[in-house]
Every structure is written in structure tokens, then in C-alpha cells.
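Here's a chain:
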Amino acid sequence: MGERSALLEGLRAYRLIAGMWVRSSMTYRTSFIVTVFGNLLVTGLDFVGILLMFSQVDSLGGWSLPEIAFLYGLSVTAFGIADLVLGSMDVLGARMRDGSFDILLVRPAPVLAQVGADRFALRRLGRITQGAVVLGWALVSVDVDWSVPKALLVPVMVVSGAAIFSAVFVAGAAFQIFAQDAAEVQNAFTYGGTTLLQYPPSVFGKDLVRGVTFMLPLAFVNWVPAAYVLDRPYPIELPGWAAFVSPLVAVACCVLAGMAWRVGLRSYRSTGS
């Protein structure tokens, strides 16, 4: 009951803080619309790069443009959701250095909710929109013999992927408590991770594929289940049921990230100590 109460309290605090930032951003609606549109265009440059690449080649690692668009749309949409919800956590190190993190500790609200909702930015919807558009195009263009399990895996991948990326954001924030100048390390696993997943696993070495499958399981955002949907062989041997375990991987990642956050928070010493 205590855990459930703490969760509800955290969600309520998050909603109130995020709502405050939303109201603030909507004060200047023209500026907000321009910012969202600009964010959409900037994030879309990644896919433009892929299109330019395919103007010179017919396939990449044996994967066609619609298949890579499928990977891209899944990765960008899932990451965009996590970035919208918890994207502000990469500034935790800066908060600790300037002493403002101490202020959050004395407020009557869960610290994780405060950090996650801080500077909640609806402009990040541009990334989600752009990823969803590419994913929609991929779904109607890719050559797949659709079945019920394959169709259901698409929304499962988006939701599970968002949860996995969210766990990486939280774990990275916990790491920053111990190493306050580690924002770039966190970004290597979050922004770097989504860029990695935009390309097929067949273009990477097997050691890297093993690493993002078994150590930091980003492969379950899209690589593993997408290989099943597209009837593509995975570079390393996995059982057939592995394509359906993304929700379990997401839950495990969130639990471990929550434990890491608690350990980090207990270990924190004030800036002035």
C-alpha cells in the first residue's frame, strides 16, 4: 500500500509540475508552434540522411528503405515519448553543481517526479510526430505478411521502447549523482542509443549486437521484435519467443533503474557538504 501511495503521489506531483510548464509555454502560442515545427524539421534531418544514402544504394545490410524506415520510426517514436516525459533528467548534474538540487530534496514531493517534470517541454512533440509519420509510411510500404501477432507487436514495441528509454534516462540520472559531470555519458546511451537503433543490426559487429541485446537491452526496443515482424534473421542466435519479451524487458529495466535511483539518492551529499 505504501508503494502504491508513493506512486500515486509521484504521478500527481509530476502532473502538476508538467501542467505548470505547459501553461507557461502556451502563453506565447505562436512561438510554441514555431518551436514545435522547427523541432520537427531538425529531427527529420536524420531521416533525410537515410533517404540520401538510399539514393546511392538499393539496400543497407540487406535491408530495404521501408524496412529501415520501420526501424527508424519505432526508435524515434519510442525515444520521443521518453524524451518528452523524462528528457530533463540529463541536467541533474548541473542542478547538483549549482545547489538547486538541494531545493528539490526539501519539497514535499517525490524528487524523481520533480526532476522528470522540470522544464516539461511540449516542443518535443515534434520528434514524436516526425517518428510517427515515418513509421506510418513504413507500415504501408514494407513487404510483410501481416498476422495478428505481428500487428500487435507494433504498438507493443512503441510502448515498451518508451519504457526502456525512460529507464535509461532514470539510470543515467542516478549515475550523475555519483559523477556530476556525466551528462554526456548519459546522452551517449539515450540519444546515441536511438541513433544506433535506426539502422539494421546486420551492419554492426556481433560484439556490439550482443552488448545491446544482453547488457544494455536496447535491442528489445525494435531490433529483436522487428526482425520477427519483417522475417529477418537476427545476427545472433535467439529463441523465437524473444521477439515477444519486450514488455518484460521494459519492466525489468524500470525496476533496476528505480533501484539505482534510490541508491543514488541515499548516497547524495549536499553541494555544501
Summary: The chain has a mean pLDDT of 89. Residues 2-267 form one domain. The chain is about 70% helix and 0% strand.
